[in-house]
Structure formats: C-alpha cells, structure tokens
From TrEMBL:
Keyword field: Carbohydrate metabolism, Glycosidase, Hydrolase, Polysaccharide degradation, Secreted, Signal, Xylan degradation
Residue ranges occupied by any CBM1 domain in the UniProt entry: 19-55
Domain GH10: 83-397
Pathway the protein takes part in: Glycan degradation; xylan degradation
Catalytic residues (UniProt): E319
GO biological process, one term: xylan catabolic process
Location in the cell: Secreted
EC number: 3.2.1.8
Name under which the protein is recorded: Beta-xylanase
Family per record: Belongs to the glycosyl hydrolase 10 (cellulase F) family.
A Pfam family it matches: Glyco_hydro_10
A GO MF term: endo-1,4-beta-xylanase activity
C-alpha cells in the first residue's frame, strides 16, 4: 500500500514537472498551447501578447514586475531603493516618455529583454545602431530594414514610442558614401533617396527622427565630412525636407553632444535653428545627447533647454549616460545619482523638454568601456541588472 502511494505521488510529480516550462522557456502567448506554469523559482511573465516567458524570481503580472532587485551589487556597493518606475513617473510629470536605447545583438539575452520590455520602465526605445546608414543602405540603392524592424516590432509589441536614429551622420557610413566623390546634384539625390526611403519605410510609426546627427565640431564650426564638404550647410535642409515629405507626422530632430550648456557649439546650433525657421525648413526638435562624466554635469542645462525652446523647437535628452573612472566606489555612485537627477530635473522643469532617453539601461551593454578604456559604469542598471543609486536619481528628477 505504501509502495503504491509512493508510485502515485511520483507519477503526479512527473506529470506536474513536465507540465511546467523551464527557466527562460515560453509559458504563454497568442497561439501557445504548451505549459503555462514555470519550474520552481520562476514566474511566468507576459512580455508581449505573443510571448510569455519563465523568468527567475518572483514578479507581478503584465508589463510591470517587481521594482526591487533580485540580486545585489557586488562589493557592498549601494543600490537603488526606489519602488517607482521611470516611465510611470516621467508620464506623471507630464513628459511623453522615459526611454532607453537598445541594440540587436542584445536581444537574445532574455534577462535583458525582460526588463527592456517593461513599459513602466521604458515608454520609448531607440535603436542604437540598426537604423544607421551602414546598416540600412550598405550599397547604393540596396536597403535593408530587418535590424531596425526587429526593434520597431519589439517596441510596438510593448506599446513603446520609437525614436529613429539616424539619417545623416559622418560616422558609420558605408564606404560608398564616406569615400565617394560626388557632384552637388549627385549627393543631393543620394541624401534625398536615403532619408526619404528610411523615414518612409516606417511612416506613421516613429515618434521622432534624428535626421541630422552631430553636424558641429566642439568649437561651433561645421564638421568636415562628405556632406558638408560637398554641399555646405545645404545638406541640412535637403535631408530635413526629404524626411518631412516621407513622414509628415514624425518630429524631425537635429541631435548633438556638448550642446547642453552655453558655449560656441550650442550657439552654433541655436543659429542653425533660427536659420532653418527663418527659411521655413521643417525642424521640430533638438536632441541633447548628454554623454556626461560623474561630477562634471553642466549646471545650466535647464537654461540651455529654455533657450532652444524659445526658438520654437522641442528638446529631448536623447542619449544620457554618466561615466566614471573605474573601479566604482560608493562615493562615485552617489555622485552619479546626483548627476542623473540634475539632468532629469532640468528636463522636468522645461515644458518643452518631451522626454529622457538613456543610452542603454545596463552597464552590460554600454558603449563606454569600448570607447573610453578604464571608464564605465555609466548606466542606471549595473551589468548584473541590479538598479544603482542612479536609478533613484532619475526617479527624484521627475518629482
Ligand atoms: O557591425 C560591426 C560588426 O560587423 C563587427 O564584427 C564588430 C566588431 O567590433 O563591430 C561592429 O560595429 C560596431 C557597431 O557599434 C555595431 O555594433 C562598431 O565596432 C562600434 O564602434 C559601434 O559603436 C557604436 C557607436 O555609436 C559608433 O560610433 C555604438 O554601439 C553606439 O552605441 C554609438 O552610438 C552613438 C550614437 O549613434 C551617436 N551619439 C554617440 C553615441 C555613442 O558613441
């Protein structure tokens, strides 16, 4: 009798176990007919209408999971204590979004995507690389949108806005553009075709486009590249007009770094906005990239934003991160918290600042260590997906 009871118990156990999805396995979604519960230690989370996934730890349903970290920072460093969600507080403050950049090679990481997908954290997504010229028109007239579409589809499934990035930039150009020798007429048509096709491909689906990226040197002079060297300043209206024709409802931005405070570069950008406005060229916004260094965030960001808004454009913080010289220390993380708060508070205080985007949310995928050796830890989540004090700075900035 005892043997029979044990056998029944074992059968029940096996049946239950096989009816559960493994860690990171699918556990629901439209069309899914498999198991809808998860193995111990996992919770079935709705990532989008088509895909629910077993994720480690406990969390709540739908697009909001627990704000508290499931692991702790290494080395006894301080972590976030906030239970609020970044996009929720941004919207409560009257902003359109709080967002993050992402990149296609990161998307196979289920733990990464599980956070990115939560629109309570991120109401907006920017593709970090896959809409750039080298990715979208590697050969003249040959357009590939699959990488960009992967991110657009992710954002749409999550009900997240999209910032398109970018159309005309000196960097990440295919060699046929970068090394080409063109007449004025030829390059004009190349820009019109590229921006028109790129923007037109996602017509009606993109909130804002960085049509022009980083046109100025830090001293406020025009950057020398194939566009300026061939066309002078006229490459700006050529691109903006092509984009406006392709998607009349997308907000058209010029995006740059080191324009967040008073100086030659922000003055040059303001003069450009005035010229474009005077000429009737479509221009809707200026992006403040905001790649900052711990303890060195400008104190006049709000005033600079107000000065741009007074010219008749909106502004947005488009690529925020705050890097430090490694290793991280408690003092550096506390200063970083203040720095994030300073930037977000500036946007919060200016009605014409529509939102804040961080240049990826986790140190795991930050561009900083690859570009600035010895520096890093620039994002609000650490490389183990634990929220840092910087996260609390963002929340406080929207208060
Ligand atoms: O695509 C190649 C791949 O084929 C190759 O195997 C691999 C090997 O390193 O490199 C890949 O290219 C990399 C590319 O990102 C795509 O992953 C480049 O090396 C790398 O330099 C490039 O970095 C990007 C950088 O722009 C280029 O300037 C960063 O990911 C991206 O975050 C960064 O973003 C820029 C914004 O667009 C504009 N503002 C500044 C910001 C930070 O630099």
């Amino acid at each position: 009798m005892k043997t029979l009871a044990s056998l029944v118990a074992l059968l029940v156990y096996i049946t239950l176990a096989s009816a559960q999805s493994a860690e990171f396995g699918q556990c629901g979604g439209i069309g899914w007919t498999g198991a809808t519960t998860c193995v111990a230690g996992n919770t079935c989370e709705v990532l989008n209408p088509y895909f629910s996934q077993c994720l480690p730890g406990s969390s709540s349903v739908s697009s909001v999971s627990s704000a508290s970290a499931t692991s702790t920072a290494s080395g006894g460093l301080p972590t976030s204590t906030s239970t609020a969600f970044t996009d929720t507080v941004a919207k409560a403050a009257g902003k359109l979004y709080f967002g993050s950049a992402t990149d296609n090679p990161e998307l196979p990481n289920a733990e990464y995507v599980a956070i990115l997908d939560q629109n309570a954290y991120f109401g907006q997504i920017t593709p970090g690389n896959s809409m750039k010229w080298d990715a979208t028109e590697p050969e003249q007239g040959v357009f590939t949108f699959s990488g960009g579409q992967q991110i657009v589809s992710l954002a749409q499934a999550n009900n997240q806005l999209i910032r398109g990035h970018n159309c005309v930039w000196y960097n990440q150009l295919p060699s046929w553009v970068e090394d080409g020798t063109f007449t004025v007429a030829e390059l004009t048509e190349i820009i019109q075709t590229h921006c028109g096709t790129l923007v037109g491909n996602w017509k009606g689906q993109i909130y804002a486009w960085d049509i022009i990226n980083e046109p100025f040197n830090d001293d406020g002079t025009w950057r020398s590249d194939v566009f300026f060297d061939t066309l002078g300043e006229s490459f700006i209206p050529i691109a903006l007009e092509a984009a406006a024709a392709a998607d009349p409802n997308a907000k058209l931005y010029i995006n740059d770094y080191n324009i967040e405070s008073a100086g030659a570069k922000s003055a040059a950008m303001m003069e450009l906005v005035q010229t474009l406005k005077a000429n009737g060229t479509p221009i809707d916004g200026i992006g403040f990239e905001s790649h900052f260094i711990v303890g060195e965030v400008p104190t006049d960001i709000q005033a600079t934003m107000e000065a741009f808004v007074a010219l008749g454009v909106e502004v947005a913080v488009t690529e925020l991160d705050v890097r430090m010289t490694l290793p991280e220390t408690a003092a550096l993380l506390e200063q970083q918290q203040k720095d994030y708060q300073t930037v977000v508070s500036a946007c919060n205080a200016v009605p014409g600042c529509v939102g804040v985007t961080i240049w990826d949310y986790t140190d795991l995928y930050s561009w900083i260590p690859g570009t600035f050796p010895g520096q890093g830890a620039a994002c609000p989540w650490d490389a183990n997906f634990v929220k840092k004090p910087a996260y609390d700075g963002i929340i406080a900035g929207f208060a």
